[in-house]
From TrEMBL:
The lineage of its organism: Bacteria, Pseudomonadati, Pseudomonadota, Alphaproteobacteria, Acetobacterales. It comes from the Bacteria. InterPro entries: HODM_asu-like. This is DUF3445 domain-containing protein. Pfam families: HODM_asu-like.
């Protein structure tokens, strides 16, 4: 029913999103503008507890180095001891600063760099044989709140997840993460469903997106409902020993997903056979049957190969 489904996060693989450590795509400028608007409206979407300052600089270095390495046409980083020069061409940023001195940047180091990278980020401090969510930049989350979770332990912020606690999934996951090594990042995939192509389905904005679920009908479910897949990557940070958790969300309308036969068949079976408590946790009961009925005609009973590849040349 549950699997931690961890694997090494290495470049290359079944999807183009694995070609770089952090995926930058054609929505980059718009996503960063949207993040700035969200932070203007709700500054608490970015919080870092005071003892995480070293982890902030770790994060800045990790992101800058990887962006400059993977996208040299868009980003560059020059280091002269502690005097650094960062250039972000798509956002027209040309910043000289002193590494380790927050006053030389317009924001704290964590906020500064995560305002320039797609996806959400949280910082986990490791102490007392546990992990604590002691910071984050979270503006495009699926129904959870950084402001509520900040400072919580690993089991506390995963508290709402059904069935997994009884089966020991989070006990095993925590022990695995506590043993993560620097320079050996890992990744996993997660999923849920969203009404309309909206990444920010936070509790803070529920009045904006909550009513949209009530508008789903059998006639519009293919166009209005989206599968949300999250590429979650984790990095051990070298100076602080903290863990950076990156959550990059991708949306696809069901009518687009249905054009790939393997995906349509798998979607039908997963939603049809999902445990009721998991379906409730993911917010599916209102429209679950609509989704099952939408994909049922695509399912001819074939045996599916493992893996996420589409296994077809075109649509």
């Amino acid at each position: 029913m549950y699997s931690v489904n961890m694997e090494p996060h290495v470049r290359g693989g079944a999807s183009p999103v694995y070609n770089a450590m952090f995926d930058i795509d054609e929505h980059y400028v718009g996503d960063m503008a949207d993040r700035a608007i969200t932070l203007d409206q709700d500054p608490l979407r970015c919080q870092v507890l005071p003892h995480m300052e070293t982890a902030e600089w770790d994060t800045l270095e990790l992101l800058m180095e990887n962006l400059a390495n993977d996208y040299p046409e868009h980003f560059s980083l020059t280091k002269n001891d502690d005097e650094w020069h960062w250039i972000n061409r798509p956002l027209d940023i040309d910043q000289k600063f002193t590494f380790g001195r927050e006053e030389t940047l317009p924001f704290g180091p964590f906020e500064y760099i995560t305002r320039q990278v797609q996806g959400d980020f949280s910082l986990q401090d490791q102490r007392d044989n546990n992990l604590y969510m002691d910071g984050g930049m979270v503006t495009s989350q699926a129904d959870w709140s950084l402001n509520f979770d900040v400072g919580m332990s690993f089991h506390e912020w995963h508290g709402p997840v059904p069935l997994a606690h009884e089966s020991g999934v989070f006990d095993r996951a925590l022990q695995y993460l506590l043993r993560m090594q620097c320079g050996k990042p890992v990744r996993r995939l997660n999923w849920t469903m969203t009404a309309n192509p909206r990444l920010d389905t936070s509790p803070e904005n529920y009045p904006l997106w909550g009513p949209e679920k009530a508008a789903i009908t059998p006639e519009n479910v293919g166009h209005r409902m989206c599968l949300r897949v999250e590429l979650q990557t984790l990095y051990r940070l070298p100076r602080s020993n903290a863990i950076l958790f990156s959550i990059r969300g991708y949306l696809i309308r069901l009518e687009e997903l249905a054009k790939v036969k393997k995906w349509a068949v798998r979607m039908h079976r997963v939603i049809r056979d999902l445990h009721p408590r998991i379906a409730e946790y993911k917010g599916l009961p209102r429209y679950r049957q609509y989704v099952v009925d939408y994909f049922a005609p695509h399912d001819d009973g074939r045996v599916l190969n493992a893996g996420i590849g589409p296994e077809q040349d075109g649509i």
